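Service request form, structural biology core

Requester: graduate student, group of Dr. S.
Request type: structure prediction, single chain
Budget code: on file
Notes: please return the result as structure tokens.

Sequence provided:
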Amino acid sequence: MKGQRLDPVCRHDVEQAEARLQGVVGPSPLVSIEFLNMLVGYKVWLKTESLLPTGSFKLRGAYNKIAALTSREGRISIVTASSGNHALGVSFASRCHGQAATVYVPETTPEAKKSNCRKLGATVVEVGAVYDEAYAAAMAACEAHGGYYVHPVADTDVVAGQGTISKELAEQLPDVQQIIVPLGGGGLVSGVAFAAKMINRSVRVVAVQAEGSPLFRRCLDAGRLIELETVDTIADGMACKRAEPFLYEMVNAYVDDVVVVPERMIRYAMQAAACHAKLVLEGAGAAALAAVLNQQVSLGLRTVIVASGGNIDPSRLVQVLQEDIRE
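Core staff response, request fulfilled:
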């Protein structure tokens, strides 16, 4: 696939990403909110990726990849497929580098994400009900018109970009002992885990999947790649039927545990983030907090929770905030 790079991620890749992102992306705020600490029962920190310019961590990988392509190839046509946040990152990064971008998204993608991609200058093409259909359409477009595909998760430069989160944490909280990370396609947790252990091998990394899309947990339990028949989760950014071999290997090598949280707890975490931390999180963005609230992660270690994104349609947010959800 033209544009995709699948070399093993190394220290130099993360350091290059850090240099490219300097002054453009991050550092995202690291905060500890007392009211949230009281709810959890321990002091924890939130790495608020939802406060980056496009509202999610996806900007890191997309910007790093497009910066690398631009420096090597010059003026090109960028194509991607995404359930929303990666599309926003690609749209933003393409505008920054003067590149034309076309993003393929499922018709079910939240309207706020599609609208903001258009505002950033990208052409938005809506295809199908799930990511897989949008991906197939994007691949066909690349083959027909020669575009450079920016993969949302399976790419060395994308993963290295996400790894800059751990580089920032090493400066913000040098004695961090545990990082809790949402897991959808695997690019985020692979980058965070690789870079965290590159800096300090003893740091524990726990990945969190939604009950309605437990792909990697199922793959690890089976000891091989499998495909889910269906996915159904409020965390649309984590909905994934198939795992990329490149990322399955990284998760297997660098992630210490993968836990699956109930859908109800993701909604409860969205409420808790809004009410106790004054932070708007989409389903995927609240998944790591959900695992903590559901007591699926030991908090005896100094723990950072990655709040990965906050791009949620207002109507969905209002609906969740009005629900009566008990722990």
